[in-house]
Amino acid sequence: xxxxxxxxxxxxxxxxxxxxEDQGRDNAYGIDEWNWCEGSQRFGLDxxxxxxxxxxxxxxxxxxxxxxxxxxKFINEQYSTSSLLDELFAIGRQLxxxxxxxxxxxxxxxxxxxxxxxxxGIPSADLIINFWNNLGWAYHHTTQDDVSHISNSSxxxxxxTIEQFIYNNYFDDPDNLYRGNYPxxxxxxxxNIEVIIIVTVxxxxxxxxxxxxxxxxxxxxxxxxxxxx
Length: 229
What we know:
By secondary structure, this protein is mostly helical. It has five helices and four strands.
């Protein structure tokens, strides 16, 4: 689809395939002395070898990670540049994929291949699902994670959303009602659920402490009144 339109696009599009992403040591899982996202980190270190930095710039990086499984529902990945990820969600919903791009998505921070590009100052977004406690996707890191559970519909939804994103930002079409938000400079992320829980607990403890202090003070005042009388 993109090749047929390449003469009308105002950008280059690179497809990058990284290896050694998921071998990092995590308790009983992983390989000793390996880190996460080794391939993309190496590319980030060598990135200046692949383009002329005095003439060219990277506008953005979109990571397609776990986009083809059944029961597709993307999360609000918190390391991602929020304005870029928000635009992808808006396009997906505009195309009618409201279940896959929910208006109130779950939020989480995922160590993934986009972080190497964020370190280079490149706006980046990670399209990924909840893979850790998702009853609709029970195959992660199992031998059942194979092509039999890949959904043509999920791949089509992801592909059409990215295709529309490219047309919105890099294709001059007067009939296109939606325009992109380049250069995606805004990055406002939500706190992780762990932070929300900690803050909630601390506020609750503070509230209890205030109530206890107030109650204790009232009791002391009553005791003093009794003694005085």
